[in-house]
Amino acid sequence: MTKAEVISVIADKTGIDKADVSATVEAFFSVVKNSMAEGENIYVRGFGSFINKKRARKIARNISKNTAIVIDEHFIPSFKPSKVFVDKIKKSEKVR
């Protein structure tokens, strides 16, 4: 499902204009990106958590040059679904 399809479904279910729904969805994504860039995690009860995960410093290999390179510790964005969300997916007949 694409973002445009999500916007269409929300507009159909709520009766709100697609332009307004699109602006709301874009604003939500903007808030998530900006908050996570500032180091804040986002918790949505019943849906899941958008969190920054810390990756430790490690030594990797450049296979083409056969050299070792150091990758410093860094953070990556991650999503952890809530128990309610996971249970709904596990019980879904369409996913199986």
Tally of alpha and pi helices = 3
Strand percentage lies at: 25-35%
Order of adjacent strands in the largest pleated sheet = 1-2-5
Helix-strand makeup class: alpha+beta
Helix fraction by DSSP (H/I, runs of at least 4): 40-55%
The number of domains: 2
Average predicted local confidence, pLDDT: 94
Q: Give the termini separation.
A: 18 Å
What series of H and E elements makes up the topology? HHEEEEEH
Gyration radius over CA = 19 Å
Low-confidence stretches: none
Shape: elongated
Give short descriptive properties of this protein.
single chain, 96 residues, alpha+beta, 2 domains, two-stranded antiparallel ribbon, 3 helices, 5 strands, elongated
Offer a concise description of the structure.
By secondary structure, the chain is an alpha+beta fold. The chain has helices spanning 3-14, 18-37, 83-91; strands at residues 42-44, 48-55, 58-62, 67-71, 74-81. The chain has a three-stranded antiparallel sheet. Strands 3-4 form a two-stranded antiparallel ribbon.
Q: How would you characterize this protein structure?
A:
This protein is α+β, with helices and mostly antiparallel strands and 96 residues long. It folds into two domains: 1-40; 52-96, no CATH class. It is built from three helices and five strands. The chain has helices at residues 3-14, 18-37, 83-91, and strands at 42-44, 48-55, 58-62, 67-71, 74-81. A three-stranded antiparallel β-sheet has the order 1-2-5. It has a two-stranded antiparallel sheet with strand order 3-4. A hairpin with a 4-residue loop joins strand 3 and strand 4. Helix 1 crosses helix 2. The longest helix is centred in the first third of the chain and has 20 residues, at 18-37. The chain is elongated, with a radius of gyration of 19 Å. The model has no long low-confidence stretch (mean pLDDT 94).
